[in-house]
User: Fold this.
Amino acid sequence: MHSAVTFLLFNFVIPTLGGTIHYEQEKHLANVTQLTFTGVNAEAYFSFDGKEILFQATDSEKGTGECDQIFRLRLDDPASAPVMVSNGKGRTTCSFFLNDNRRFIYSTTFHHNETCPLHVCKRDDAPKECNDRHPYLWDVFNDYDIVLDDGNGTLTFLTNDSSYDAEGVVSPDGKSIVFTSSRSGDLELWLMDIDGANKRQVTNISGYDGGAFFSPDSTKLVFRANHVKNAEELEKYQELLRHMAVSPSLMDIYTINVD
Assistant:
């Protein structure tokens, strides 16, 4: 619940000169506080103790260049500023704290290529969907791998292959990570131990499965999915996947047992 609220703050709050903002007709949220004021900031998630957040940002004022980098921000110190904790190379996404509130995971492309990978619609071989009036496609770069940061900048690769590995989330009990991967040829949910061992596939239906979160007792997952319903949808989905992209439309919400 906290993670979803933070996501709203980062993506849909209109920047103002003040420190707080609250849409007057909003009846469900209180004490809304704006946390960032420059650049494009997204996908913010709380530490387990609620004192910090991790998020990704593209912001020249924060020194990111043209690609998202991972930032850490203390919430218990009003004077604190976001600190970049990724190395500024490649593109990063999907950061999440471990339950010790010190270590964290995220996905990065820098070990394959230190430059910023192009969005699907900016590439020479862009798919035909990019010609739509308002194309909306997510990049699922095969260069993305999940790393574990020890809290001091030392990285351990939990995945290291030629498939998309991202959207990682740590279980509340600290034992497991759920993530989305294309390693099977489809975008499916996978689980692995906190050290990257014991990778096992959770879902097995054609179409996108991702954005998973654990239940508080770590026994269930909730996730979004767009499962293809016919041969035409399957062909379109697979063609986009060959371009390392997915169309995030017509999503449904599912739950599944971890075991």
Remarks:
- The two ends are 23 Å apart (CA to CA).
- The chain has two helices and 17 strands.
- The longest strand covers residues 207-214.
